Automatic annotation (TrEMBL):
Keyword Transcription regulation part of the UniProt annotation: yes
Source organism (scientific name): Umezawaea endophytica
A Pfam cross-reference name: HTH_AsnC-type
Keyword Transport among UniProt keywords: no
Top-rank lineage group of the source organism: Bacteria
GO molecular function list: sequence-specific DNA binding
Protein name: Lrp/AsnC family transcriptional regulator
GO cellular component: cytosol
Amino acid sequence: MDTIDHRIISCLMANARSSYADIGNVVGLSAPAVKRRVDKLLDTGVLRGFTAVVDPEQLGWGTEAFVEVHCRGNVSPSDIQNRLEPMAEVMAAYTVSGAADAIVHLRAASIHHLETALERLRAVEIIDRTVSTVVLSRLLDRPPAP
């Protein structure tokens, strides 16, 4: 990756609907040259795809929490992932260092919905206990800088 690739990524992060010609005008390349570079960035996994950025609150999922998950015994990350994947409220899950085995990001429509999601999470047989932190407000939410 060179500085032009970084600038192309910046353009796409600002507006993924930009045409190759528009990006080319910014970075000083032709539209076909930009397309070749974007294809290469996709092939190498630097770009994983293009998507719409949706505001979960506008869809009615404005309640969120981060949950420390403590498992019974030695549980593999893939086993944790397999148990969490069916839960629609799980937005993300991470293995972490420290006392917890994983951190789970939950989203729900209301506190009551969040409570029922937490109850279902706690009912997973590999989970011993959880520690929840409900989000009051989002202070900063930005993508990584290219």
